[in-house]
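Check these lines:
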Amino acid sequence: MHEDPDERPLQPVAAALGWVLPGLGHMRNGEIRRGGLVMLGVLGMFLAGVLVGGVDCVDRKEDFLWFLAQCGAGPVAFATDALNAFLVKSGRVGELLNTMQPDGSTAPISTFKGVGGVGDVGTLFTAMAGLMNVTAVLDALRGQRRDG
C-alpha cells in the first residue's frame, strides 16, 4: 500500500541541509544510499564542469543567469565563483589585457580565461548540477518514503 505524499510532513531542515551539501538532506531523512547517490551525481557533475571549463565557467558577474542555476548546487558554486574572482579576474593567474566592449568601453580580461565551446560545456555542466540539486532538495523536503 502506497502512502499519500500529502500525508508526510515537510522536512525544511533536510531541504536546507541538502542545499548546503547535496545529498545530506536525504541522509538526514534516513535515506543514506539515496543521499550518497545524490551527492555523487551533483558534486561529480559540478566538478566535471569545472574540470572541463575551468573555474571561470562559474561567474556571477558575467554570466548571472547561468549562475542562478549553478547556485542550486549550494555553497560550492559560491566558492568556485570566489576562486574565479581571486585567481582569474584579479590577474593572479594569467595576464590581464584590456579589451574593447560593444559599448565602446574597455574591460580587463585574463589570458587564462577559457574560450569557445569548452567553457560553454563547463558552464552547462555546472548549471545542470545546480538544477539537479534543486530537484533533490525538493525531494528531501517531502521526507522519507515508507513504501520502499
Summary: Residues 9-141 form one domain. The chain has one domain: 9-141. The chain has a mean pLDDT of 88.
